[in-house]
Amino acid sequence: MHAAALCAGAAVWLAAMRDPGVRRARALFVDGPAEPWRAWPPLLRARRLVVERREWWCVPVAVLLAVLGASVLPLIAGAVAVPLVRRCVRARARRRQRERAGGTVAVLCGAVVGELRAGQEPGQALLAGLRECAADGEPRAGGGPGGEAWLGDAESAVLAAARFGGDVPAALRQAADGPGLGGLSGMAACWRVAVDGGAGLAAGLDRLGTALRADRRRREELRAQLAGAWSTVVVLALLPVAGLGLGAALGADPLRVLLHTPGGLFCLVVGGLLEAAGLFWACRIVRGAETR
């Protein structure tokens, strides 16, 4: 029974870690230009895949606990934990994407200011700044930072407006609806004031870029100050695991007690609920401090 559970968990984990887009990507890009990511060694690509799908690490851990405790309850808990961990990982990835997008807007402002002061027209300066921002970031299949258009679906409208003399402020305000791209609304306002009132576009964009960079530095400083609080949350989360290890070292067999006795099951359920509530409360407190 233990061997069958181990083999089933390993099969599920290996099936989940397989990249479903390899065949499609190979068909799409096999004849295209060589990209740096395609030259990565297989070990680095496998490591990248493991990092991107870290939620599936719950499966082998659950299988190991099921084998050690001779119970199917860890398998059920592992199956429930996979979507929860995936949700947390994706939320963290979205927060990082918003932060990178905000930094890219500041870079765009600086690039456009440099082009304007070099004598370029506003539309050509914006095109040059967009090309510079698109060249930044990690190259992947699909082009642009992170493999996607960093302005989202509105990037084509911004490019067309800048290239053919369209309504650039309206295109920038449309693109500002994307995650982390709120600074583009300020850029649109500077552009509108410069066009309607004759004010200097370079000066306004310079002040906007300075404000965006200052806000980013403030968030980084706050995150550094909250690193200790996050460490406390991690330590509190690992305390039950340390208790189980200490009990096993003393010969108490805590897994058997928790998984095969009524009192142990009651303590496991109540302790799990209290652990989840404590982690949720602590994370909410730290997240609230980050957003201030």
Polypeptide structure, described:
The protein is an all-alpha fold. It has 13 helices and no strands. It has helices spanning 2-17, 22-29, 42-52, 58-69, 73-117, 122-135, 155-164, 168-175, 183-197, 201-225, 227-249, 254-260, 262-290. Helix 1 runs antiparallel to helix 4 (58-69) and helix 9 runs antiparallel to helix 10. The longest helix has 45 residues, at 73-117. Residues 16-40 and 137-148 have low confidence and may be disordered.
List the helices and strands and how they pair.
Elements: H1 2-17, H2 22-29, H3 42-52, H4 58-69, H5 73-117, H6 122-135, H7 155-164, H8 168-175, H9 183-197, H10 201-225, H11 227-249, H12 254-260, H13 262-290
Helix pairs in contact: 1-4, 4-5, 5-6, 5-10, 6-7, 7-8, 8-9, 9-10, 11-13, 12-13
Core attributes:
0% strand; 292 residues; mainly alpha
What radius of gyration results from the CA coordinates?
Answer: 26 Å
Give the SSE order as H and E letters.
HHHHHHHHHHHHH
User: What's the count of strands?
Assistant: 0
In terms of quaternary structure, what is this? single chain
Tally of contiguous helical segments: 13
Distance between the termini: 52 Å
Class from helix and strand fractions: mainly alpha
Domain Type II secretion system protein GspF: 148-245
Organism: Streptomyces microflavus (Streptomyces lipmanii)
Main location: membrane
Protein name: Type II secretion system F family protein
